[in-house]
Design brief:
alpha+beta; 2 domains; rod-shaped
Length: about 180
């Protein structure tokens, strides 16, 4: 049995063959797409792995060119970024438009709950981002027009959310939108 590992472009990056219940790495060079048996210095190990490889190829009637063809469908997916709620909260606490919106919101319950939702996220507990967005949008809607953020202020929030890998963005008037 062999195991092929693929890089992010779907190209074979490593080959392992199972010998006596363990996977041994074949000295495969992904740049040249060839196997360099001489790179295994210890002769008995080289012979053992090479023999297992040759037997596997022969027994399975494998066309190595087909087996090692690019397979983008097998490329690993990019890991999802973990939201950095701390960076977001620190940014918002120093953000004048955010503080102006919070200070002038006419609904005290909404502004307390939006900050509570951010605190829950900062503590590392799982958070309902939809709930945060609803409280954010309620706070924004309950803020008098003269204290609402400008499009330039909103762009700062978008940048902050992107830099912190948050699963949200903002529309032109500052409403929070789930991504």
């Amino acid at each position: 049995m062999i195991k092929l590992s693929y890089n992010s472009q779907g190209k074979v990056s490593a080959i392992h063959i199972k010998i006596d219940g363990y996977f041994a790495q074949i000295p495969y060079n992904p740049t040249t797409q060839s196997i360099d048996w001489e790179s295994i210095a210890y002769e008995p190990t080289r012979q053992s792995i090479q023999s297992a490889w040759d037997d596997w190829i022969t027994d399975n009637e494998i066309d190595l060119a087909v087996e090692l063809a690019d397979r983008p469908d097998l490329a690993p997916t990019q890991p999802k970024s973990i939201p950095d709620w701390g960076a977001c909260i620190r940014g918002l606490l120093l953000d004048v438009p955010y503080n102006t919106m919070i200070a002038n919101c006419t609904n005290p319950i909404a502004k307390v709950r939006v900050e509570l939702a951010f605190s829950i996220a900062l503590s590392g507990n799982l958070m309902d981002v939809n709930l945060l967005a609803n409280y954010w949008n309620l706070t924004l809607s309950q803020t008098p027009v003269e204290f609402k953020p400008s499009p330039i202020n909103v762009q700062g929030w978008i940048t902050l959310a992107n830099d912190a890998s948050l699963p949200v963005t903002f529309d032109v008037i500052g409403q929070m939108i789930l991504i």
